[in-house]
Amino acid sequence: MSFTALADRNFKVMWRDWLSLGVNVALPVAMLLVMQALEGVDAFFAPTSLAPGVVLFGFAMLSMTSAMALAQDRESSLFDRLLTTPLRANDFVLAYSLPYLAVAVIQAVVVIGAAVFLGFNSEGNVALVALILLLMAILYVGLGMMIGASVPYKLVTGPWMVALMLTIFGGTWVNLDDIGGPFQAVADVFPFAHALEAIRGVLLEGAGLGDILADMVWVVGYTVVIAVLSIGVFRHRMTV
Questions:
Q1: How far is the C-alpha of 171 from the C-alpha of 176, rounded, in Å?
Q2: CA quadruple 92, 95, 99, 102: dihedral positive or negative?
Q3: pLDDT of residue 1
Q4: Do residues 159 and 84 make contact, with C-beta atoms less than 8 angstroms apart?
Q5: Residue 79: CA atoms inside 13 Å, Cβ hemisphere, count?
Q6: Would you list the domain boundaries of the chain?
Q7: Fewer C-beta within 10 Å: the chain N or C terminus?
């Protein structure tokens, strides 16, 4: 099987799973609608501030879906047959990642579209926001690939829950400026808080690339590391 054939097969498998697709797209929008109702309590829950965190929450959900898909295939006879092809580890990871990156784009567009309907308004460069979200989508899907390649199907939810909690307490719908202390110290070690800080800086304050460069270093660095690790873990699994 060629890379193109495997990617095409994975696209078809994903698009046929309407329930999973519906949940991955609809649940973040539902969370946006519910959480923005708290805008009167705290401006943090206004659509412009809340939407980026909801998008990352959607990416986190997609991370689990992609991890389960890969783990399930890895435990099937299909994977044994695929190992006889000339495909390399990076070919496998990319062929499984591309369908979910496409869904991530749909998630982001739908959530931001719903936020616009609720009053979303950007003070800065939307293209810069799109770049950060794309990097985070690659990071989350790469994380899913790494989990799916390293743990059995039944155990996928364990490491995924850790990533989900880090996402939520990284500022998804928790205002780290209000919490501070150990929570913020831990959040600052991971890319999720930095991504949200950068995006909200652009949206709410009109920040440019130079203003968010420090946060971008964290985002780009983690994205590269996760991508490399996912390929490395997959390559290891191919030999055991």
A1: 6
A2: positive
A3: 65
A4: no
A5: 20
A6: 3-238
A7: C
